[in-house]
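Trying the structure run again after the queue cleared.
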Amino acid sequence: MKRKEIITGVILAAMLAAYGCGSKVEGNIDYGEIEEAPKEEVTEAPAEEAQDEAQDDAGEESSEEAEETEAEAEEEESPVFMGGMFLTVYKTFREDYSGDKTLANPENDFTKGEIIEGKYAVLTMNEEAASVYPELYATISSNAKKKIAEDEKAESDLIAQSTSDYEKALDSGYSFYDPFYYNEEMKVIRADNTVLSTIADIDEFYGGFHNLYTRHGCTYDTATGKELNTDDVVKCSEEELNKILAEELHAIEVDATEFKGIEDTLAHYKFNPTSSDTDDYEHAEFPYNWYLAADGMHFIFNPYEITSYNYGDSDVVIGYDEYEGVIDEKFTPDTSKGYIIPRIAFIHDDVDFLDRDIKDELIITYTAAGEYKDGYIPAKAITLILPDSYATIEKPCNVTVNYSDYYIVHKADGTEFVYVILSEPDDCYDLFVFETTGGTVKAVRAETYKRNMIELDGGFKGRYVYTNPEAEYNEQMGDAVTDSVNVDVASDKGGVIITKDYDPADVTTLPDGSYYTSLSTDTTFSEEYVNSVEFIDEGLLIDGSIALKEDDINFKHLGSATYLITTDSSTEYVSGGGDEDNIHMSRDEFKDYISQLMESMLGLQFTIENGVVKTIGIFS
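Done. Tokens:
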């Protein structure tokens, strides 16, 4: 393993402790100054009362049985989802250079005097949580106090270090291209009667060739407030777990070198590590970094920990029932009641995806409406793409150059939605809602909301965390709508979808002949356009404008309609262009292909003979 990989193992152990995993030391500031919930003495009472009752009832079997029955009843009555109980508290900071040193050529100072900016995030719980989950509330409160105190010191240290580095650059005549930064996000991945599982996402840059992005998981027992260790959840041996992790990593590797030697590297990961001495790497031990989600137990390996930076981080998921006897069954969630999967995605320019083969991914793209400025790119539409369909909602918004949040929301009735959250510069955000039930994307709605930010002492702000799939995002967060768009008039093209039901009176059939249309809704360069293509049992439904080829140079425009073209097993599906030979493909391959090219302005051509499409293809 490379030297820098060894160092990162030590950093990981320190960071896990900083985020409360294994640490219950209280900080030296008054938590009540930055939290709406009651003071700590209020939350201590239930624990003391429980201890007194346990002592009084010792040895009395009937009383113990009564307590167990009461505890079971309370558990059944307590909420399955801890919606509206969590807040993430943020503090942002920025420092401009105030000294008297300057560069000989001020134009080489690209930061314009800004040396560092950042944001810290802390998870807290509100007053409702204090009465329903007192032990968890006490743990989260204690950890929050400690972390806030640490963040205040870290902020001071970062400002001092960045100032020193900035002045060294000035003294040496070096350019200072970018301000340093530290950005932190806190996410609740799972919050139910069994566990609270969180992730801290950290993106930091202190000069050099690139930033460093890391993730740190932490999981608590909801009832006891205990921070769970790996062997509280995993019931197999370390050797068995490491073997599974190695197999899972090899299954997702990009090439044979990505996880080369991973078996030896994983041998250093332990349930209860005792040493992480980088001077003696042979005997060094590192903790597992993990969290619990709806789909299983996720193990995180950050850049440099098990492979080079170029490969990024790795998130390996072990399903709750995937390996018998590996994960304690009591941690398996009841997904029939619904669940949320919070994720982060890079929002891509839609031009980048016109020629891509979309297989298993969920992809979010934007249609640009202007040039980049101050960290944002103006956009006029957002598109959600799945392997078999996509949908677009047209609404003015701004896309950051960084990653954006989205949530996969499974409701108890079996429906599934994706909520895309795009931050705006003024404490607002745009919410784009798509339904994805059954793998077919449908546009639902889009609104702009003013964030329900709670002002707190010490420069902190707090906002609620989305954890309940049965509640709408904006309702649980308490946000106020400021703008909305009617999806009926939005660009809900529907992409390529599979449907079986249509009204024959609403479609137009075509006689034998050769036809042409353009895969675009833009009529600037062609009178022909396509809004959507639907694959049905009988053939294809094309909603748009089509032209009949009369000879080599003349076309007859047929106008706008929904056209039904019939196909059968003899229909050929092709693509081509220039002097290259046509590429033949199956119906399913052609469906995937056309779904990627709906705004490409390429030509869609087909020939009908004896009422059936002989050949249909996409050509440049």
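Residues 1-18, 22-62, 73-78, 489-500 have pLDDT under 50 and may be disordered. Worth checking whether this holds up in the mutant runs.
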